[in-house]
Amino acid sequence: MKKILSVFAIAGIGGLTSLGVSHLLQGGSSTQASMLAYKAPVSYVNMPAASPEASIDFTAAAEQSVHAVVNVKTTYPLQTSQNPYAYDPFRDFFGQRAPQHQEAPMATGSGVIVSQDGYIVTNNHVVDGADKIEITLNDKRTYTADVIGKDPTTDLALLKIKETNLPYMSYGNSDNVKVGEWVLAVGNPFNLTSTVTAGIVSAKGRSINILDNDPAKGQFPVESFIQTDAAVNPGNSGGALVNTKGELVGINSAIASNTGSYTGYSFAIPVNMARKVVADLLEFGAVQRAFIGVSIRDLDAKLASEKSINEIKGVYVDGLSAGGSGEEAGIKEGDVITKVGEVDVNNVPELQEQISRFRPGNKVTITLKRNNQEKIIPLVLKNKNGNTDVVEKPKAEVVNTLGATFEDINSGDMKKLGIENGLRVNKLTAGKLLSAGIREGFIITSVDKKKINSVDDIKAALETKKGGVLIEGVYPNGMRAYYGFGM
Prior knowledge:
Layout: H1 2-37, H2 59-66, E1 69-75, H3 89-94, E2 106-113, E3 119-122, H4 124-127, E4 132-136, E5 142-144, E6 146-151, E7 156-160, E8 182-187, E9 195-206, E10 225-228, E11 240-243, E12 248-256, E13 265-270, H5 271-284, E14 294-298, H6 301-306, E15 315-320, H7 325-329, E16 336-340, E17 343-344, H8 348-355, E18 363-370, E19 373-380, H9 398-402, E20 404-407, H10 411-417, E21 423-428, H11 432-436, E22 443-447, E23 450-451, H12 455-462, E24 468-474, E25 480-486
Antiparallel strand pairs: 1-2, 1-4, 2-3, 3-7, 4-5, 6-7, 8-9, 8-11, 9-10, 10-13, 11-12, 12-13, 14-15, 15-16, 16-17, 16-18, 18-19, 20-21, 21-22, 22-23, 22-24, 24-25
């Protein structure tokens, strides 16, 4: 009996053990399944459906913009299609006129209408050197534009067409533009009129060293571009950078590319800078450029360590101009400028941009750190001449416009060439004559049928000239030539 009970006991224990093991195994399988079913906190990156109020809509901004952005077509002095006496290389090489005239060299860009009475902002490089500027509106009306003024320092130009009640773009505030903000680029890339592309602001205060620095000509470039990833291509220059409200926040100007076409980086002039340039050109005919009178450099970790500066913020004053605003106000070498007025500046382009908003004679406050202590210094800005006078629009000398120096020719050379008068082109630089195709050594015998014997004769013929000019003459080898260009 005991044996039987023992067998049942052992069997019962075995059964319970089996059930326990089975339960444990099932529990293990459940845990494993839970682990396999667990999902990491990741999701797709497509935009989920949102209410119309919450989504970004570019259509209103695009609609406002395209009607205020124009096509700017420029024609240059080689105008054989319009002037039968223009430079023709076939005639020069073979001594006779080619049966077919060349087409005049042309380029296209964009511009932005900023007033209903026809003022248009574009880039200086779009219209510089042009003989004729044709504006085509979005509704295909065309006009010839006059140049009100140009500013190579900022690469801006102001044009005017004779029309009223035009659609125009309202100025925004480029200081309020934020990195990451959506913007539209509007222009005419590759002659594709009224093209709108979208992107975000990638950076502000960019200097890309694209503008000429020529102190001899008074050109001290101001580069503080808004960088975007909105697609911009050749033909977009001078077009609009627009925020989602349809406000103008920049003038598209350049791309960073190793192909000549868009590869991801485009640059626009801040509209606050453009607005001041336009106001100056309208009021004075020339940009009133203000200077602090300091040489500056970006502050980095190495310089901060060398100069025992405890915060890498601001722009380092590397030197002072004698008699300049900075010296008179008490700025010292080694100071670090951190603000202009209430606006923070953290690099050279940002400081230059802020100062470019002012005119000589304006009072500003400069916040700086000296020996790591903050100081606020008021100063009066001056012009490049070291005073606060208005800089008037320079009157271009006719000879300077021609880009040439001249010399008299002797009676022996005149007899040899069979001419009775003339003035030799001695040396050529950039100007009307070089653009027209005239080469050094050419002897000008007449301008618009008026005989030429001296530089004064040229001045008299061209001083008040507007429109096409015909120059006749002869080369030292006896080949006669005719050239035309516009004044």
